[in-house]
Amino acid sequence: MTTYPTAAFRRTALVPGVLAAIVLAAGAVLVGTEGFTWIRYVTSILALIISVFAWQSRQWWWLLGLLPIAVAWNPVIVLPFDGVAWQAVQFVAALVFIAAGLLIKVPNPEDRNRR
Question: What is the DSSP letter of 43?
Fold first, then answer.
């Protein structure tokens, strides 16, 4: 009986990274409105989730981009950002999320190919 090989790594940050990028792209039009508070919650939480995945994979340099995003989009202590610059930063943060999602890899404990 042959089995298919399993991947040596899992990209656990891919789904939250893409989801955060979608939320940030949609939230760019909500900057300055009350609906932007929900964008702040989701972005901050997903940045912290991906930070945990980066920590688990021992790729700590991603924390330099993810933790400032978690702080800047924090809905509890709101930083007074507004305008076109804030909308541009939304897209930069979306790129950070996509890059982190693609590049953060956690070793697969169920790797059947490992000897």
Answer: H
